[in-house]
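Consider the record:
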Amino acid sequence: MSLDLTHGSAPMPPVAVASGVAARRRKLLPALMLLGPVVVFFLAVFVIPVGLMVRYSFLQQLPDGTLSDTFTLANYIRLGAVDLYRNVVITTLRISLFTTIGAMLLAYPLAMVIARGPALIGRAITVLVIAPLLVNVVVRAYGWRIILGNGNSGVLNWALSYVGLGPVEILYTEWAVVIGSMQVFLPMMVLPLAAAIGRIDPAVEDAARTLGGSSLAVFRRVTLPLSVPGLGVGCTLVFSLTASSFILPALLGGSFTKMLGTLVEEQILTVFDWPFGAAIATAMVLIVMAINLVYMTLIERRFRSRATEAA
């Protein structure tokens, strides 16, 4: 009795193939039904509005207020050619960078207490960090106006005069926007950091201390590199939210400290120049995304290498 091995295995019957396809369709249908509302919501709320914004940024507004049908780069050229707009871009990046650095310096001690401190104290710090999110950002901005008010009307200047120090002019400066932004966006840095530090095995830090490392050395060589994922998320959130905010710069910076968010608001709601406002918003998104990508790449490469060396 001989076997014919030249043609391989026998093909599946058509009935089996049809039943397999039907089974896959039955499994796919519930997934599509679950994803359908999310996809529709994402398209309606994000994709379509952003697509329209990008499209408007390549149009030109005519003297009668209508939009031209021809695509042009005039809005982007105007944004890069005018000194005023270039200074606004630089100011936005500078304030966002200082806010991110300040929030990072304040967030690490808080995140360490939340993740490594006593449970009761950790919960109390968490509540104190999250509680300001329940207050509207406009209310908090007006609160900072009262605290940082110039002259004798500000709480800070009143306290400085009480101890014999001269008044300081902080309101309507970049530092006022940085201080207000740090307070508003600090939870966005603390919570990811606390989650990342909480995932670090305490035995790793104890081993580093057993080998003679000081608390600063353990933090610099072990805790900091291993908390990079949380640090990256926090820095991305704080930098992006600061660069796109317009309420804090408008109330704390005034007309002396303009950022891209306030510039977009003025062009769309005051000047009614929708194409130029859309170009500014599109450029702001692209700049923030590019800086975040570069930052994430650099910080992950550096601290991952240090973590490997420490291990």
